Amino acid sequence: MGKQVKLPCFVKSLSSHETQLDPEGGLSVLSVFPEIDALLVSAYDMYLKRNANKKIKNRHESMCKQLKNLDARGALILLDSGNYEKARKQDKTWTKRKFDWVLKNVPYTYAFCYDNLRPSKDIEKNVTNIISRVEGDYKDFLIPILHAPASKKIRKHDILPDLFLEYASRKKSPFIAVPERELGEGICQKVKTVVRIREKLDTLDHYQPIHILGTGNPLSILILAAAGADLFDGLEWCRTVADKNTGFLFHHQQFDFFKSQTRDMASHEIVRGAMLDDKNRLNLKMGLHNLDFFYNFMHDLQDDIQKSDISGMLHYRSMFNGQGFVDEINKLIPEFFK
Prior knowledge:
By secondary structure, this protein is of the alpha/beta class. It is built from 14 helices and twelve strands.
């Protein structure tokens, strides 16, 4: 593809489900921010019905144009399968046929495969099924999503390390994805699972990046990156408000409390300018505020990961400073606390 992003990377997700910026509005915000490395759109939101009216067709054309412009700027554009929205909205009309239409008609860099949510408990059969989903007409563009088999609706996260190794041993991929919710119950178990996955993958003769689906909380990104994950996507940037002093997230309606941070601490002039323009909607200002935060947060995290010094994020830069969970992270990943 000729595109590279610095790892770890936070992929800014868009969705029509429970966000403060719909996909069209979110793309508009991303388009005006000067430095966008990666974003994710859902095939569900990019599908155009045959009988769509002119307004919807124009909207779709506008979104595709924005994606093309972001692509030209060098942004990594990921296309999700649409199964997240299908499940959350209980929309049984979403099918692989519609997903395939989006693959042919919408700009993207890589697309996640149309994943199997009920995989086999047999690792080899599970992996064989995933490979069948990423091969074919789009084999150079499709990214695997690994799902652990479920028992009484609980995903067996303990099988994931071997599942990752089996897939990566049989087929190379730019990255391999897994939903955060399937890594275990609670952040500590999720970290342990990622550590075990990374240990397995490090036995290969090549580096295999790990993508965690649905992770947009700064603390979760920090600790899972330290555990060995590489890419993360989440809706938090367009759903909540980030406190630049602490890294904690707040309800979007509390953005008024953080406007002064945007005016006084924003690294990008366009973010400060948007805040001072009364004509701009609050959601636009909030989105730019969050993009500015994540831009700086990820740069700091990339530097500290390279130095194996997560303590720099937790202690020395006031990010999460003084919180009791620092000791828990120290126990889980002691190599980052020198």
